[in-house]
Amino acid sequence: MGLFVEIIEGFAVGNRYPLSAGVRLGRTTGEILIKDAKISSLHAQVEEDKSGHLFLSDRSSSNGIRVRGVKVKRLALLAGVLFTIGKTTFKVLEDEAEAEELTQNREIPQESDSWLEILTRELPRLNAVNQVDAIGVRPIHPPILLRFIQGIQLNKTILVGYGPRKAGAEVIDIELLDPDAPKLAFEILPLSDRVMINVKDPSVLVNDQQVSSDTMKNGDKIRIGNTLIEVVFYQEE
After folding, report:
1. Does 96 have pLDDT greater than 60?
2. Which of 49, 51, 67, 150 could form a disulfide with 228 if both were Cys (CB 3.0 to 4.6 A apart)?
3. Cβ(167)–Cβ(195) under 8 Å?
């Protein structure tokens, strides 16, 4: 899916520029040139990680990259993200035509289907190999909502209805896009009478404390870099 940035405040408001790995942004050097005195000659460059995600990295500029007033060295380029360079504010957008085409070709469950109905319908379709791999999987009841309340994935919510589940920068299960996220950050492990969080990296804090393992509770806060996740035990009305 194609990404681009649009200037929404500052110099050349309304201008749009496509994003791809290697694109440079600066005042006099690069593919995106902005006549803003507060922007360095070569200010930042778009990079791509192993997972194919695009990031904007500061190139030792004078004023850096700011997100919500916070200076960052590296920024994940996701649709809807706002960032400021110098006196110019950009918004990351995706190609709406491509997004619509992908949505039309993707099988999406009906809104009336609950997570339990979807699991009940889909699990019998798995072949024998997948069923063997699934041994040890337990339901989480009530399910848990992981709400991203700070960071690059702000406003994202993930419903966790079974476990174990893993979260990290190089995990396809619950992927963390924070530049400071470790490869494997934490694991959610359902037991017979409670749900545990097993922390896999010392940089991950639970309620601003270092723990190796703890029972998950409603309202817990998990911090990974600049990302803050709130734990909510979901109750269907």
Report:
1. no
2. 150
3. no
Structure tokens at 231: 């734990």
- What lies within 8 Å, CB to CB, of 13 at 6+ separation is 7
Strand partners, 214: 197
Alpha-carbon distance 160 to 25, whole Å?
39
N- to C-terminal Cα distance for the chain?
36
**61 within 8 A of 34, measured Cβ to Cβ:** no
Residues 6+ apart with CB under 8 A from 34: 7, 10, 11, 12, 25, 26, 27, 85, 86, 88
Asked whether the beta carbons of 73 and 114 are under 8 A apart, the reply is: no
Q: Which residues of 20-33 are buried (b: 16+ CB within 10 A; e: fewer)?
A: eeebebbbeebebe
CA pseudo-torsion sign 151, 87, 9, 74: negative
Mean pLDDT to the nearest integer, 119-128? 56
Q: What is the model's pTM?
A: 0.49
Q: Which residue from 112, 158, 115, 174 is spatially nearest to 139, judged by alpha carbons?
A: 115
Query: How far, rounded to the nearest angstrom, does the alpha carbon of residue 43 sit from its chain's CA centroid?
Result: 24
